[in-house]
């Protein structure tokens, strides 16, 4: 009997867990879900699933952690990225396959020889972005290359957004995934290739100038470059492309406001504030005065950023933070969680689009491949669908022997993306492609 072990039962795990519950019934597989929060597990596995169990563990307790890993055939980690390596080392030791939705980092790369030596598959970047973006782009690029096409420009855009009918605040944004990741987004800056030039954008400028991206038959957003695009040029086999960039989509007002958030060091993790008994207004006054910012002068009423900060509590002298010693980033995260939540009937939105320019036999084309997924409510979100389902589907295909790769991979091999994308389509996650002949 196959046995899947899942670490993590948070926001992004909802749909993955529902998928694993279905597998346990259909295939008679065991599923174990471990997390540090009993409530997160209980609310997601309500019902009669005799082969599914939940367990509360401290991930840093080696005895508990190892006992669960030893019993499994395959491990999925939805823990914070920094914790994957703890699980990964155990998976190598006990010869278990591992799936994550996070970027491959240096600590994971260091395990590559041992992964290969033990004939294991460690499949990372297997969520939405990264994940579905790799697979859908890989399929499109491969299709063009098989037609002897030469791709000159590749741009890939993805955003976790709020559905238009639930866009009810001046940020035009609501939290549908890990709020800490929202706060930290872009801190490492970005680097990409444009018109055969390498463009490096520091964090301080990342949200200052944004291009508009129009989604066919939908609406327009703005984008900012996402991390290190250059590292994917070789992986995508697009060394000849003069433009290669991966971006994040947001509403224009979000980027206008977030530029000030960055400029005014509200994502700073170093300086701490004593927040017990401190109102939100008091925090902003302390923070701005420490930066020698005259908030009365800088924050003019009825500007976009003024309205956004008022929504977060700029003038709220009644609500106390009461979180002990906190950095500005900690306070900002708490404000996002409390002021920008998805309400029970709210729907989030995932939007992804690839734009390619290429030539085949001296004819020039522009291709757009795009995806729009709308969530059902604040639990069954589009984000949870698009992050969780690729992991669940890949786990199933690996244990069934459909995917037989070994080593450390991201999903850019046809033996991964063809079957996974095919099954994603049965779950309603389907790309639309439009190709235009250019004069």
From TrEMBL:
<dbReference type="GO" id="GO:0019878">
    <property type="term" value="P:lysine biosynthetic process via aminoadipic acid"/>
</dbReference>
<dbReference type="GO" id="GO:0005737">
    <property type="term" value="C:cytoplasm"/>
</dbReference>
<dbReference type="InterPro" id="IPR051168">
    <property type="entry name" value="AASS"/>
</dbReference>
<dbReference type="Pfam" id="PF03435">
    <property type="entry name" value="Sacchrp_dh_NADP"/>
</dbReference>
<dbReference type="InterPro" id="IPR005097">
    <property type="entry name" value="Sacchrp_dh_NADP-bd"/>
</dbReference>
<feature type="domain" description="Saccharopine dehydrogenase NADP binding">
    <location>
        <begin position="4"/>
        <end position="119"/>
    </location>
</feature>
<protein>
    <submittedName>
        <fullName>Saccharopine dehydrogenase, NADP-dependent</fullName>
    </submittedName>
</protein>
<dbReference type="InterPro" id="IPR036291">
    <property type="entry name" value="NAD(P)-bd_dom_sf"/>
</dbReference>
<dbReference type="InterPro" id="IPR032095">
    <property type="entry name" value="Sacchrp_dh-like_C"/>
</dbReference>
<keyword id="KW-0560">Oxidoreductase</keyword>
<dbReference type="Pfam" id="PF16653">
    <property type="entry name" value="Sacchrp_dh_C"/>
</dbReference>
<dbReference type="GO" id="GO:0004753">
    <property type="term" value="F:saccharopine dehydrogenase activity"/>
</dbReference>
<feature type="domain" description="Saccharopine dehydrogenase-like C-terminal">
    <location>
        <begin position="127"/>
        <end position="429"/>
    </location>
</feature>
């Amino acid at each position: 009997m196959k046995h899947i072990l899942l670490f993590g039962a948070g926001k992004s795990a909802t749909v993955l867990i529902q998928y694993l519950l279905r597998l346990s019934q259909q295939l008679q597989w065991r599923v174990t879900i471990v997390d540090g929060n009993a409530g997160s597990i209980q609310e997601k596995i309500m019902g009669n699933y005799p082969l599914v169990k939940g367990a509360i563990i401290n991930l840093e307790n080696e005895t508990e952690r190892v006992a669960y890993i030893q019993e499994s055939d395959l491990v999925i980690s939805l823990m914070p990225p920094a914790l994957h390596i703890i699980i990964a080392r155990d998976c190598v030791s006990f010869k278990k396959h591992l799936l994550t939705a996070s970027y491959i980092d240096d600590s994971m790369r260091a395990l590559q020889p041992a992964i290969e030596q033990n004939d294991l598959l460690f499949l990372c970047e297997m969520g939405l972005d990264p994940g579905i973006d790799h697979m859908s782009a890989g399929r499109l690029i491969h299709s063009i290359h098989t037609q002897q096409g030469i791709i000159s420009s590749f741009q890939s855009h993805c955003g976790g957004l709020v559905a238009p009918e639930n866009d009810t605040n001046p940020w035009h944004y609501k939290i549908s995934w890990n709020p800490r990741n929202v706060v930290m987004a872009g801190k490492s800056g970005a680097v990409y290739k444009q018109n055969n030039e390498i463009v490096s954008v520091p964090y301080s400028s990342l949200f200052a100038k944004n291009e508009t991206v129009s989604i066919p038959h939908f609406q327009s957003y703005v984008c900012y470059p996402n991390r290190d695009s250059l590292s994917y040029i070789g992986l995508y086999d697009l060394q000849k492309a003069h433009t290669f960039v991966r971006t994040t989509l947001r509403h224009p007002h979000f980027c206008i406001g977030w530029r000030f958030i960055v400029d005014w060091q509200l994502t700073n993790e170093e300086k701490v504030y004593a927040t017990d008994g401190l109102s939100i207004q008091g925090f902003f006054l302390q923070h701005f005065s420490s930066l020698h910012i005259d908030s009365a002068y800088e924050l003019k009423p009825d500007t976009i950023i003024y309205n956004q900060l008022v929504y977060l509590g700029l003038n709220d002298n009644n609500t106390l933070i009461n979180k002990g010693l906190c950095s500005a980033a900690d306070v900002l995260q708490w404000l996002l969680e409390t002021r920008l939540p998805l309400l029970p009937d709210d729907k989030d939105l995932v939007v992804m689009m690839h734009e390619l320019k290429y030539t085949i036999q001296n004819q020039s084309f522009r291709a757009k491949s795009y995806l729009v997924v709308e969530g059902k409510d604040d639990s069954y979100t589009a984000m949870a669908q698009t992050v969780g389902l690729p992991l669940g589907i890949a786990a199933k295909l690996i244990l069934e022997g459909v995917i037989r790769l070994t080593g450390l991979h991201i999903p850019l091999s046809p033996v991964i993306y063809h079957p996974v994308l095919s099954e994603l389509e049965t779950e309603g996650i389907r790309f639309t492609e439009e190709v235009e002949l250019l004069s």
